[in-house]
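Deviation from plan, reported transparently: zinc ion complex.
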Amino acid sequence: MKTFIKYLLLSIIVLGGVFASIYFLLLPSQLNSYTYTTEQIALIRENDLVYDFVRAGKSTLMSTALNNDAKNIERTDLYLVKDTDLPENVDYEHLYTVMSTLSEKGYDNEQVMKLIKSATLDELHILMDSPLPVNMDVLYSALDKKFPVVQAYQLSNMDRDLSSLIMNDGTDYSTTVKLNNMGYSVEDIKALNKLGNTELNMVTVMKYLEDLPTLVSNESFDMKLLPRYIMAIENEGYEAEDAIVYVNDNEDYVDVEDIDMYGLYSDDFRTENPGSYTALVNKNHYLNADYAPTDITEFSHEEMRTDVATALGSLFTALNEQKFETIIVDVGYVSYSEQEELFNRYLEMFEDDEEKALERTPYAGYSEHQTGLAVDFYIRGSNFEDYEGYQWMLDNIHNYGFILRYPAGKEFLTGFPSEPKHFRFVGVEAAKIMHDYEWTLEEYKTIFE
Ligand code: ZN
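Because the crystal trials were delayed, the predicted structure below was used instead.
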């Protein structure tokens, strides 16, 4: 019995050996079928890598690498990637160049392997053409977290706190980067994240407001009152926390009877970017005598800027569709010299009483009709606020890019008495924001450029 077992074991060993030898003898021919050249196969055998190469499967990338440089036989960790693990129709020569460059540059071979499986050649080119990231580990973990290569690269060059905010706290990449570029710190951004996405996006197009993170952190913060908080801080010297109490209690409100409509005029500020749709012209922001818009066109027998005329065309069509009576444009663009004449006529009428004249019309340079963006409407037989379509206009006119410029109750902000017929074109985007948050142009300009 014992002898039988001995023979059996011996036979197994011998047979096993024979099969193994046949197998190993066949391996090189397997390599042949993977399109390695005879020289390459010899090289593979010399380096005892036959088994690794067979196991890896067909790797055109590896044979490309060997074609380029036989020394690449030592870099199986980089190039021995199975064809089926790569995207279809890959340009192997191109891929080899990118990989060898990245590897020489200092990228970890294992990571380069990972990269070529997940990134496109274009993306890899970005890495190839850019300096090594400051925080290599951040790049790798961002790639693990499936960030696109470009973002992963940018994350790896950021302040670590900022990249970790995006990668670990899940804050939106582009919003966070924008906020940071504006000047908000990581702590600021954490505070700002209490705002919803819509408002956070709005913050990215506002001015940088140093006090915003503190304001937002306060439980009583109200976005609608933000411009007034900022005015209280900037113009009246309040601390952020106190500004919230002050404005929430409506302490900044001034009754229309108590406003010195005449005394508000000053030459403190010249209007910046007078051609902009949101240019601010009021009692302390004036236009130069030589400012005139260059794209004046005619609509409804009045002059105005081209985009205002187009928007009015759409508005009039809509009013018509609503079966409202047609309205008339009473005043559009008024040039500096026309305004000067108008003011002087009133001055004459009131025997040089400037205050009385100013109750009727502003000084030349202080009327926003000079921008070509303001329009006064008119309706036959009644005041414009009694127009049958007036409420519809208040509810919808922002969709055409207009705002009611001087609303009742906001005189302390605009410096002008309520004027129901005077509308101002600011562009659809700004008009929607002002409508949604009930901001006057003065408020909007406090927080937007
Ligand atoms: Zn007007």
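The chain has a mean pLDDT of 92. We consider this an acceptable substitute for the interim report.
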